[in-house]
Specification:
The chain has two helices and six strands; from the N terminus they run E-E-E-E-E-H-H-E. The chain is an alpha+beta fold and 143 residues long.
């Protein structure tokens, strides 16, 4: 199975009725055979940016802990392609996955490579820091 835009057609979906005490949205959750427990407890760091134009390059991060170990599970991102019209000027998004809150905290508070990258990112954003929005969440449910 590929990962194209129409892959949802390839999944056999089932609706799970979850009680409102377990599901804060109080609605059924669509689920495939994928087990979300693999991602439970992981931390997702989302950065939305308003770039005046597509940046040629911001460089790459080689983030490692003091002992040289890598601690980022994945980094993905790209330009906005939404058709909903709710971007509010944000036109690029980056998603960083961590195993734990501690790894995310190290990334934000102590990793020099990240600090240098963040400085370039803010400098390239429209309006500087006002052109950047960051949200983090700990995965507590999924489909």
């Amino acid at each position: 199975m590929g990962h194209g835009r129409n892959d949802w057609q390839c999944y056999v979906l089932k609706v799970l009725q979850i009680s409102s005490s377990d599901n804060p949205f109080g609605t059924p959750i669509i689920s495939s055979s994928y087990s979300p427990s693999i991602m439970m407890g992981k931390v997702t760091h989302i950065v939305s940016v308003k770039f005046p134009s597509t940046p040629s390059t911001l460089g790459t991060e080689k983030c490692k802990k003091e002992d040289g170990s890598e601690y980022i599970l994945s980094i993905t991102g790209g330009p906005d392609i939404s058709i909903e019209g709710l971007q509010k000027g944000y036109n690029h998004i980056y998603v960083v996955q961590f195993s734990s809150i501690e790894d995310r905290d190290f990334y934000v508070k102590h990793d020099v490579a990240h600090a240098e990258f963040a400085k370039r990112l803010v400098g390239a954003a429209e309006g500087g820091i006002d052109g950047v929005a960051v949200l983090d969440f700990e995965v507590s449910f999924g489909v």
